[in-house]
């Protein structure tokens, strides 16, 4: 199964008088790694969730390849989409292996190769029999990624999935995610607050502000000064931090 493209076609989501997402039209090419960045409340998570229908747009359509996600049951759609969020919510009464296999089990599909999935996320195979409570936060997020990939999903949505991790673990897991993206030939969409993470991992960085897309650039173009004022304000943060550290 090849990685799919994702198209937002005039997508808006209103909550009362708030436009969480405001007329977004954007195509994410098959096989790309896109970071969605922007201030808190800019609409990143809401836009991401229109893909797997955790949020239904007020207007507009979302297409995976050429198919409208609104067609057919949401459960069938979600089985084809890996989704990892900050507090991943592993089932506490199930072992790591059972957690990883839950998607295919519910769907009545063949059991996934748990050992291979643990290898992919660089967890020792012996954690398969453990309870989630006996794992660190970083290990739990790795299990979350393994669970998201278990049904063979080629589209991976990551919503601040590394938000609660220490910087070293976050960096290691980010690199592993990028390698997995390349090895498995995925389309990956990563919501992050961290512009440095976006620049280092993504092939394309989409900047949101007040529900709108205000920049859509490659990391190189952003670093060369493209993307406008809001994008450059975000790029300035890690750049100035690096300069201040170098000057210590
Ligand atoms: N279920 C909801 N009901 C009402 N308002 C909502 C709901 N979900 C989101 N919003 C509002 O929509 C706007 C966008 O929220 P969203 O969570 O998409 O932003 P975000 O960029 O992902 O923020 P953060 O980085 O803090 O997670 C915010 O003003 C938020 O308060």
TrEMBL record:
Identify the keywords attached in UniProt to this record, alphabetized.
Answer: ATP-binding, Nucleotide-binding, Transport
Q: Give the matching SUPFAM superfamilies.
A: P-loop containing nucleoside triphosphate hydrolases (SSF52540)
Per its UniProt entry, which superkingdom is the organism in? Bacteria
Q: Which SMART domains match?
A: AAA
- Point out the coiled-coil segments of this chain: none
Question: Where in the numbering of this chain does the ABC transporter domain appear?
Answer: 6-235
The record ties this protein, via InterPro entries, to: AAA+_ATPase (IPR003593), ABC_transporter-like_ATP-bd (IPR003439), ABC_transporter-like_CS (IPR017871), P-loop_NTPase (IPR027417)
Q: GO terms for molecular function, please?
A: ATP binding
Q: Which family does it belong to?
A: Belongs to the ABC transporter superfamily.
What name does the UniProt record give this protein? ATP-binding cassette domain-containing protein
Species: Sphingomonas longa
From the broadest rank down, the organism's phylogenetic lineage runs: Bacteria, Pseudomonadati, Pseudomonadota, Alphaproteobacteria, Sphingomonadales
């Amino acid at each position: 199964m090849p990685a799919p493209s994702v198209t937002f076609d005039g997508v808006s989501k209103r909550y009362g008088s708030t436009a969480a997402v405001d007329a977004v039209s954007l195509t994410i090419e098959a096989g790309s790694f896109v970071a969605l960045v922007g201030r808190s409340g800019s609409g990143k998570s809401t836009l991401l969730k229109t893909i797997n229908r955790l949020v239904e747009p007020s207007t507009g359509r979302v297409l995976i390849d050429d198919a409208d996600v609104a067609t057919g049951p949401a459960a069938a759609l979600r089985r084809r989409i890996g989704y990892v969020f900050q507090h991943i919510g592993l089932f506490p009464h199930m072992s790591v292996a059972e957690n990883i296999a839950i998607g295919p089990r519910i769907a009545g599909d063949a059991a996934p190769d748990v050992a291979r999935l643990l290898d992919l996320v660089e967890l020792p195979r012996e954690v398969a029999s453990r309870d989630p409570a006996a794992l660190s936060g970083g290990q739990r997020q790795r299990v979350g990624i393994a669970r998201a990939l278990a049904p063979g999903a080629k589209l991976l949505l990551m919503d601040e999935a590394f938000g609660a991790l220490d910087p070293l673990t976050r960096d290691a897991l980010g690199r592993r995610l990028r390698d997995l993206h390349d090895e498995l030939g995925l389309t990956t969409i990563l919501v992050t607050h961290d512009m440095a993470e976006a620049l280092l991992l993504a092939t394309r960085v989409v900047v949101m502000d007040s529900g709108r897309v205000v920049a859509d650039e490659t990391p190189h173009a952003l670093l060369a000064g493209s993307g406008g004022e809001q994008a450059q304000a975000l790029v300035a943060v890690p750049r100035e931090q690096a300069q201040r550290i170098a000057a210590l």
